[in-house]
Amino acid sequence: xxxxxxxxxxxxxxxxxxxxxxxxxxxxxxxxxxxxxxxxxxxxxxxxxxxxxxxxxxxxxxxxxxxxxxxxxxxxxxxxxxxxxxxxxxxxxxxxxxxxxxxxxxxxxxxxxxxxxxxxxxxxxxxxxxxxxxxxxxxxxxxxxxxxxxxxxxxxxxxxxxxxxxxxxxxxxxxxxxxxxxxxxxxxxxxxxxxxxxxxxxxxxxxxxxxxxxxxxxxxxxxxxxxxxxxxxxxxxxxxxxxxxxxxxxxxxxxxxxxxxxxxxxxxxxxxxxxxxxxxxxxxxxxxxxxxxxxxxxxxxxxxxxxxxxxxxxxxxxxxxxxxxxxxxxxxxxxxxxxxxxxxxxxxxxxxxxxxxxxxxxxxxxxxxxxxxxxxxxxxxxxxxxxxxxxxxxxxxxxxxxxxxxxxxxxxxxxxxxxxxxxxxxxxxxxxxxxxxxxxxxxxxxxxxxxxxxxxxxxxxxxxxxxxxxxxxxxxxxxxxxxxxxxxxxxxxxxxxxxxxxxxxxxxxxxxxxx
Length: 515
Ligand SMILES: [Zn+2]
Description:
By secondary structure, the protein is an alpha/beta fold. Helix content is 53%, strand content 10%. The protein has 23 helices and 10 strands. The strands form 3 sheets. Strands 2-3-4-1-5 form a 5-stranded parallel sheet, covered by helices on one side. Strands 8-9-10 form a 3-stranded mixed sheet. A two-stranded parallel ribbon has the order 6-7. Helix 13 packs antiparallel against helix 14 (271-283). Residues 59-61, 84-85, 88, 90-91 line the site of zinc ion (ZN).
């Protein structure tokens, strides 16, 4: 793994100027604090920096300076520290990850009071090896309130030989009392040019060449994460001495494999497979933002192809997928990509995937062997998975795009029409929610409106134009002409059905997550 091999080993090798300068100040100042808080997005070098700091404080070359800090009254070496040598026993042990001077705790899985109590007992023991014991607590925001309080007690009276490095991707979840006890270092997403220069260094060692534009493309795909950029470079560079634009385009990397698996699972309405893909992606630290982009790009490509071949059903399925999966990540959630995951799962459920899971689970609970998966008849058409090599052949039975608009098709697709309109004009969508399609006749569509004001608004040329366009695209017809009529009274909204549908979705999601 290149991202391990080429991890920066000294402060001056750190890729981000901000962290390089912050750690440079510790090195040049010849003194250190007992607690640091490194905050910033994943893959920006927080734990690498913490390990380098541990090396600086334990390297043989700094031994006499660090001893001076530990024994003098002003806690200063009176001399700058030097960069870790990388070859003394302490440096080597830290690089290999088996030094007794460095303890790494992942607060995501050790978040309770007992974990911190155990840590506290160790902290007050004299170091068995080296001069300074460095405790790295990763994802520190995951600690429970009690655990934070226990940690705070240690931070208030830290033993002289101990340095804490708390790392977090979500600073807003770290209590103010903790933050105020730490020297704060902000890690930023790397700029593409910083990533390009880091990649260039690796390629020099590996004797690989690549055009500037290729490296820039990799840097942009990595979205500010050195780790993702180096991973992608390694995939693309496999067995090559020169990387061209096409290599990058063709490889797509591991993320595109994940995207492909995901869209396959969605098309097959296989909720369990969707869940597995997400779990694996999380475990492998896959860039899910990029996966989502690729899934949308693949679905879009399939939709365009379907429209070109006048495959109405197929184009409709992919339009629906595009509308459903166009959701933004939520940084406040424990898994920011949960909305994307839920959207994928709800697409599976639409095809009856939810029921299938329940049946299988029941069988499993009763100790029966899960039966072979057989294709389940679904309400939404199931399609062959997208494949760039197999050109889809247009079905004879499918309606050509110029055909007349079927009322049932319009009714079925009405929620999709609304969703698609919401993307371009939220006002029109809001107005349409209080209407209902009444009838179609050839390309003419009559829509019942219940308030004169709504009718006026919807009849405006620009609004009518948007709606006609979306209906044409969603229902796969060449022409749609709208007519609005004023209805007698507002229809009751199908509240009960909606709630049942939601409950069904929540239940299915719970079952999948529990499994
Ligand atoms: Zn050393």
